[in-house]
Each structure stands twice: as structure tokens, then as C-alpha cells.
Specification:
The chain has helices at residues 2-24, 59-71, 90-99, 115-124, 146-159, 178-189, 211-224, 242-245, 289-296, 309-315; strands at residues 31-34, 76-79, 103-107, 128-132, 163-171, 193-199, 261-264, 269-271, 280-283. With 341 residues, it is an alpha/beta fold. The chain is globular.
């Protein structure tokens, strides 16, 4: 218990420090999602972010990339995939992030979260972990179901000293929208922060939520932003961008991808996000503060119907300053976004 209290206090202090630094200075990334391995142990039908064969990126290469992110002044580095827990040196990479003064996060499907492994993540210094759960019962599209993962959530509740967020989704042909309510209720019961995402359908179109979906969305959103959940959901509770998405309407906002948010693929290239791989596709090793300043001011044509919540939330830091003005060939073309990994 004492260890958990100390870990929480340290994490809150470091989060506050990075918040102040982010408000004071613009030319550094707030959140970087980096891929240590593209392979995944499950095969969800909607996912475009995994394969079954890729080897892990060697630890030495990953550490050099982490060093570069530290040089750029990054606040938070989060591992994504694929399934990052398949990387054999993940704990050493987490320790290296912490040694370089950055916060460490992990986005996982949750399958490997047994007590021993959670304790190892504690010792490595992990700050936060997110699992996206798609349904209550597994189906032919997604195996990230509450029934298969509930025991893992109980293990997290009993052993984790890091923050845990559970994400659920609506839209995009989800068979049972009521599942999102069940998943969020269970996560809050276990003391975790929660979030909910709006996704495109299989053709890449964003459609207004139907009556049942909208009812679930309103109930879950109210719970996330309720009086007892505000502190726990300080980050995931930033969800005003979804008010238009649930109606199928565009958002007018300044996407800071490529600057405040970076997506670094297994090849070490910087992209706007997981759904805009190929833009700007610049090597991280040669990425500079000038690149960050340029992308901060570069509008993205995919932004109006973007559903990538982490980019929206990170971009909120600068919603009040630095109007974007670059036009023409620098704009990334829109693509279909899919469910969060």
C-alpha cells in the first residue's frame, strides 16, 4: 500500500510538472506513441496496426530512439503496437524512459497481465496503462472482450501501482452498443479511469449515432465527467470534440500531430498518427525542433472528422494559441480511421 501511495504521489508531481512545462513552452512533444513490435497475439478483424510475423525492434535501437525523444523534450512516451508486451525487453525500455526523465505509458490488449507481470511493470516504473475493450463477449471481429479480460482487470486492481484507463467504443457497426455501458461500469467499479471513443464504420465514414447508441454515449459520458470522477478522468475526460462526432458533424480544431503528438513506427519514422502513416514519414533520428514548429502550424485535412482521441486531447493544450496557416501540398489527405488499438 505504501509503495502504491508513493508511486501515485510521484506520478502526480511529474504530471503537474509536465503540464506547466507544456503550457509554458510549445516546441516539444507532449505525447509520443512508439512501436517496439508490430506483431500481435490476437487478430481483431478491424485492426490495421498489426501482423503475425514481425520481429521486435532490437532494444539498442529502441533505446536510441528513446534518447532522441528525450533530446526533443518529450513529456510522455507510450508503447503501442501490435502488442508491445510481446517485446522481450519491454521492462528495460520502460526503465530507460524513466531514466531519461520522461513518463512511461503502455497501450496493450491486456492478455499478458498476470500478477507477476504486473509487479514487473511496477518495478520498471510504468506510469500508466490503457486497455481498449470492444465488447462483453468475443465475436468474429474482436477478441478484446470483457469476459476474456475481466480477470486481468481484477489483477490490475489488486497489484498495479500505475494508473489504468479502460476505453470502450461506439459507432462503426458495433453490434451491442450497451456493452460500452457495461464495460465502463465495471472499470469504474474496479477504480480505473474510463474513456469512450466514437469510430468510423467499415467504409471509413463517420455516421451519427443511432438512438440506442446515443443514449449509451450520454450515460457513459455523464459518468466519466461526474463529480467523483473528474480527477481520475482528468485526461480522458477531455471529450468535447466528440459532441460533434456523435452527430456525424465535423470539428473545427487545430490538430498538433507531428508536433505535440508523434507516432513513431517500428521503422523509426515519425507519422501524424496511426491512421496517417506516411505523413510526414520523416526519420526520428533527424527530426528537429524546427520540424516540430512547422507541424505545429500545419493544418491537416483529415482533422474535421478525426476520431483519434489522444491527438484531440493533446492538441487541447494549444487550442488558444498559434493559428495554423500553411496550405497546399503539406496537407495530409484524409483516410479512414478505425477503432483504437
Amino acid at each position: 500500500m505504501k509503495m502504491a501511495v508513493l508511486a501515485t504521489a510521484s506520478r502526480k508531481a511529474r504530471s503537474a510538472r509536465e503540464l506547466v512545462r507544456g503550457l509554458a513552452h510549445q516546441a516539444h512533444p507532449l505525447l509520443v506513441q512508439i512501436i517496439p513490435i508490430r506483431r500481435c497475439n490476437i487478430d481483431c478483424g478491424y485492426c490495421n496496426e498489426y501482423d503475425k510475423v514481425s520481429a521486435p525492434v532490437p532494444a539498442g535501437i529502441m533505446m536510441r530512439r528513446i534518447d532522441k525523444l528525450a533530446v526533443l523534450g518529450t513529456s510522455v512516451v507510450a508503447f503501442s503496437g501490435g502488442e508491445p508486451m510481446l517485446h522481450p525487453d519491454l521492462d528495460d525500455l520502460i526503465r530507460h524512459i524513466r531514466r531519461r526523465g520522461m513518463m512511461a505509458g503502455l497501450i496493450t490488449n491486456g492478455y499478458f497481465l498476470v500478477p507477476r507481470r504486473i509487479e514487473e511493470l511496477n518495478r520498471a516504473g510504468l506510469d500508466f496503462l490503457q486497455i481498449s475493450i470492444d465488447n462483453v463477449e468475443p465475436d468474429e471481429v474482436s477478441k478484446k472482450s470483457l469476459r476474456l479480460l475481466d480477470k486481468k482487470l481484477q489483477h490490475l486492481n489488486e497489484h498495479a501501482t500505475f494508473d489504468v484507463n479502460i476505453n470502450s467504443v461506439l459507432g462503426g457497426g458495433i453490434k451491442n452498443p450497451e456493452d460500452a455501458r457495461t464495460i465502463n461500469n465495471r472499470a469504474r467499479e474496479l477504480g480505473f479511469s474510463t474513456s469512450i471513443g466514437i469510430i468510423h464504420d467499415g467504409t471509413g465514414h463517420l455516421k451519427p449515432l443511432g438512438p440506442i447508441e446515443r443514449k449509451v454515449y450520454d450515460e457513459v459520458s455523464a459518468a466519466i465527467n461526474g463529480p467523483w470522477q473528474v480527477v481520475k478522468n482528468l485526461y480522458s475526460g477531455i471529450s468535447s470534440f466528440q459532441d460533434n462526432l456523435v452527430e456525424g458533424r465535423p470539428n473545427d480544431w487545430r490538430c498538433r500531430a507531428g508536433a505535440r503528438y508523434l507516432y513513431v513506427c517500428e521503422d523509426g519514422l515519425v507519422h501524424y498518427c496511426s491512421q496517417q502513416r506516411g505523413y510526414p514519414a520523416a526519420p526520428l533520428e533527424t527530426y528537429t525542433i524546427d520540424d516540430i514548429r512547422r507541424e505545429l502550424l500545419t493544418p491537416k485535412s483529415c482533422a474535421p472528422f478525426c476520431t483519434v482521441g489522444c491527438v484531440h486531447r493533446v492538441s487541447t493544450m494549444d487550442f488558444w494559441r498559434s493559428p495554423q496557416h500553411r496550405v497546399g501540398a503539406e496537407l495530409a489527405p484524409p483516410v479512414a480511421e478505425r477503432r483504437p488499438s
